[in-house]
Amino acid sequence: MNVAQAKQIDLPSLLAQLGCQQQPVTRQGLWYLSPLRDEDTPSFKVWQLPSGLWCWKDFGSGEGGNVIAFANCMIGKETSDKAISDALKWLDRLNGVRVAQAPVKAITAPKSGQIKAIQSDRFTLIDNKRLTNPQLLGYLDERGIPAKLAQGFCGQANYLDNQSKKKFYGVSFPNIDGGLEIRAATAYKHHVNTGAKNISFIPGQKKEAQSLHLFEGFIDFLSYLVLTGQEKPQNPVIVLNSTAFAAQAANYIISNPALAETVKSVITYFDNDDAGQKAFDRMAELFEPTGHQLGDCSYIYQDQNCHDLNDYLKNVPTENRTAFIKSPVKFFDSSATAAHRRTQDYKPKI
User: Fold this and answer.
1) What are 93-152's pLDDT values in tens digits?
2) Rg (CA), the chain
3) pTM value surpassing 0.85
4) Per the structure, how many domains does the chain have?
5) Which residues on adjacent β-strands are paired with residue 169?
6) Positive or negative: CA dihedral 81, 43, 243, 190
7) What is the per-residue pLDDT for 188?
8) Of 192, 208, 242, the domain-final residue
9) Which of 29, 60, 71, 261 is deepest in the core (most CB within 10 A)?
10) Does residue 77 sit in the same domain as residue 131?
11) Is 106 part of a structural domain of the chain?
């Protein structure tokens, strides 16, 4: 079984084979008691995309993704962290799992610009075009992100909230499955399902770069470019879009031949909070058997009492930011824990 075949597996059929029963919940989608942990109230949602592929999300743990991501979680619970190849073997050993069929009525809509509107459970994407809205550009400017830089990586999405029937617009950032992470110029942070929610990958300008940089969100990634004076990243970059996707990011690096052959170290710029620490822990566990060095740069902005990289960009005066460029990456053994990285003396591993 290959990746394309695995993504076609009918997830409800797979769950039924594992002994999971659909629960009587009136909300959209199919709901189950999570097979990944013990619970009394169903919080494990399964739904089908217009393409026919199935996705899932465990609202109790924050994890989610496609069938392969589910298999990885199941294997990780039973044994240890496994790569995609082991997830495929696990799926292949299961008998009688049906291949997903496309919905009888795939949702389509008239074209708006160059993109067809696509509907998810919650949102309908109307269009995604060049970022020009003054309010959105002002929102980014308040965060220290120049318009020209943002326009090189982001778009402007207009979308409908199917529940409230209100229209929104926001800064969009694509992921590797064609989905859009959308940040409105308000407190809202939305994901529109033009594909499964997933990580984002930006190739670097440097050929055969030995280091890959990892960020929680795209605002932090853009902040990094501002702080380092780059229009495009020299090294390859992965944006998690959610700390729950730490495992997906590690598997992407390990299973991608071009990255697996060249990348020797992964440098993280996670938030200074519990979620950031847990994401670092997860990466440390996954890279322990691969020999990748794991780097941490969060101490630079933690020392300035900043929560994340954008917080550092906004609050530290320009003349004081030279420390960000001059400070060395703090490398640790891949077995280092988040607590360890926060308490030791941060001597670089040479």
Assistant:
1) 664 444 343 333 221 222 333 333 444 556 788 888 888 999 999 999 999 999 999 999
2) 21
3) no
4) 3
5) 158
6) positive
7) 57
8) 192
9) 71
10) no
11) no
